[in-house]
Amino acid sequence: MTAVVRRSLLDDLATSMLDLIADRKLAVGDQFESVRSLAERFQVAVPTVREALRRLEAIGALELRHGSGVYVGPNVGRMVLANPLPLKPTAGRLVELLQARALIEPPVAALAAKARVESALAQMEHDLVQAAELITSGDHDRLAEINMDFHRALAQAAGNATLAEVVESVTVVNVREQLEILHIHGDRETDLAEHRAILAAVRAGDHVLAEQLTRAHLDGVLAVINARVNP
Amino acid sequence: MTAVVRRSLLDDLATSMLDLIADRKLAVGDQFESVRSLAERFQVAVPTVREALRRLEAIGALELRHGSGVYVGPNVGRMVLANPLPLKPTAGRLVELLQARALIEPPVAALAAKARVESALAQMEHDLVQAAELITSGDHDRLAEINMDFHRALAQAAGNATLAEVVESVTVVNVREQLEILHIHGDRETDLAEHRAILAAVRAGDHVLAEQLTRAHLDGVLAVINARVNP
DNA sequence: CGCATGAATTGATCTGATCACTTGGTCATT
DNA sequence: AATGACCAAGTGATCAGATCAATTCATGCG
Question: Which residues have CB under 7 A from strand D?
Answer without folding.
Answer: A 8-10, 43-48, 51, 65-68; B 33-37, 46-47, 50, 64-70
